[in-house]
Amino acid sequence: MNPPVRVLYLAGSGRSGSTLVTTVLGQYDGVFAAGELRYLWQRGEVENRPCGCGRPLRDCPLWGEVRRELPTDRAAAIAAGLRGRLRMRGLPALLRRHRRGVRPVPAHPDDAALADLYAAVARHTGARVVVDSSKLPPYGALVGALPGIELRVLHLVRDPRATAFSWRRRRGLDGDADPELMSRPPVGKAALLWLVWNTVTVRLWADRAPAGYLRVRYEDLTAEPEATLRRIAAFAGVDPAGGPFTGPATVRLTPTHSVAGNPSRHRTGPVPITADVQWRHDLSRRSYALVTALTAPGLRRFGYPWRRGGPAAANPAGSGSSVAVGSGRSAQVRQPASAGHEEG
Ligand SMILES: [Zn+2]
């Protein structure tokens, strides 16, 4: 009997730094940065979109090994099945089942293929930890109930005004040249999604399984990148000493084989980790007010101020910020650090 596959599941809302965390963790010994595995079947297998290494997924040698063990001829059907099982309208029933102590996402014949995917990834990469940045809490609940999986949940949270602003940027799904854009929900919808996904993540894991749950705020991550990544590595059961840091806030990245995610996953070489704070200047007053009103319960829970000039969160971002994490942009744009901006 094989030992269980340890999966570090990155949960929460989009645009919270999950691609960066995945790419950095993938540089540690014994870790495989798998990316958003819930998209493997559609974007990887059916659409043959680029792997993190730059090759179309079906041409990547590593995924070639893994795919041989999977029912790839059924990829479209498996993708459709997942979409159907993970719909937003199923959330109340999912939480009811969780409260009763039964599987939050009911079993399904495709689950065998999903379990085989994680086992094959661990076998062919030799990784002790597989990082899955799928984020969607219902998918994490599904994965956690698969046989042979030991789930640890890293909950990444970011100020919802920042994520709402980031969602509105025009961005190709696989970089600037890609005509297919990443989704761009209106700020009100982005705010509601932020509230729902972060609340459901807390209900599913923080309340029930605190030993297997770690919450990290984007603002703390970008203020102290190396120290925060060490904490995450230790939580995942990885030697924190073996990371890619060349300074407290600089990493040297080599290509990963991650599936889907922000286009920034293709960046390699020396990369400074800094906060993307453009929203503080460029998010309109109306949008700020709307997002703040819609996410009010979560703001309090996660320690974010209501007002732009409100009291600081527990760990305010470091000075000299530049556009980087979560922006998905390859260009670094220096922002003045002391222009009297509205940072709390
Ligand atoms: Zn690859």
Overview of the structural elements:
The protein is an alpha/beta fold and 344 residues long. The protein contains 14 helices and eight strands. It has helices spanning 18-25, 40-46, 61-67, 75-85, 91-100, 111-125, 137-144, 160-168, 187-206, 218-223, 225-236, 278-282, 285-294, 296-302, and strands spanning 5-12, 31-35, 129-135, 149-157, 213-217, 245-247, 250-253, 269-272. The strands form two sheets. Strands 2-3-1-4-5 form a five-stranded parallel β-sheet, sandwiched between helices. The chain has a three-stranded antiparallel β-sheet with strand order 6-7-8, with no helix packed on it. A hairpin with a 2-residue loop joins strand 6 and strand 7 (250-253). Helix 2 (40-46) packs antiparallel against helix 4 (75-85), helix 3 (61-67) crosses helix 6 (111-125) and helix 9 runs parallel beside helix 13 (285-294). The longest helix is centred in the middle third of the chain and has 20 residues, at 187-206. The protein is globular and about 55 Å long. The termini are far apart. The model is unreliable at 315-324 and 326-344 (pLDDT under 50).
